[in-house]
Amino acid sequence: MKHVILCLQISLLFSSFSYSMQAQYSSIFSFGDSYTDTGNKVILLGPSTPGLLINKPPYGMTFFGHPTGRLSDGRLVIDFIGPKLQARRANFAVAGATALKTSTSPSFYPQAGGDDGAKPPPNNISLSDELGWFDAMKPTLCDSPQACKEFFGKALFVVGELGFNDYGVMLAAGKLAKPSLKRSPTCLRSSQQSLMPRRYKLINDGATAIVVSGISPMGCAPGNLVLLGSQNGADYEPDTGCLKGLNDLSRSHNAQLSQALTTLGGKYPGTRVTYADLYAPVIAFAAAPARFGFDGALRDCCCGGKYNFDLKAACGMPGVAACANPSAYVDWDGVHLTEAAYHLVADGWLRGPYANPPILGAS
After folding, report:
1. Which of 165, 186, 223, 272 has the fewest CB atoms within 10 Å around its CB?
2. Catalytic positions, please?
């Protein structure tokens, strides 16, 4: 029932935005996890769910003035892309979502008691679930396969960041924090094998424009720097201060994803397939924060403790205050970015240099 309610909420959101005949795309359909979720997690769980911190102040403080279910102080990348394209939007992303379906991917998510000791995320919502909600919505938009192909041929599909949560399962079990990252090849293969058929599905539905995001540098997330930190200085990148091993994993994931998308575009030359880089901008912010208007990087605006991150004083908990000026920070709560950082990423996806090809073409 909650899934049905979610679809209804998305449908209402879709109909509430204005549409300009001058727009390049008439609609935007987005999928993903917390980097793209504009409130669906709160709808799924209910706003009064105990321990649901994302529905508490100071989340949303910068732009909205109140929590909206977004894991940031304000708008996300998708919030900047939508108005720029003057398109109606339907968002199926859910915070905590994974690329793989946890219940049907035992090789990726070892069962409790296995040699890895890792457990699947409790959310158990994957890209396949989000695409199922999209399928459930289609009858409200078009009434025949041909009509749907025409409708979706004028839409932009954004598959936001997916993979961070998948790898997070193994990180939590302590199996990906070692320099060897010996499990990463299996993780990478499983992730790519799962994701690509789902993107074929969107094309078969009529999509002619698809944007797919890579993952951020996991070694730069303050939460990971605290929870997975090392006493060995050689484990850190000298130019950024980020954890080398985790960033190696992020780069490997993104390289394979980018290559797979190039192959996908070659197989469907009538479809514009864009690889949206989330790694490059965040690593640039970490290496030279002042260049982008930030006072510093690798520390949170909303939390406390080392790197401004502390699980016992997490953002949204009673008595935990945010910094006075979130726009001076890259990181918001240990994993997610501030509105200021998301704005820069969105600009780079729209016109470059952080997307290949850019959504709107090179400036």
Report:
1. 186
2. 34, 333, 336
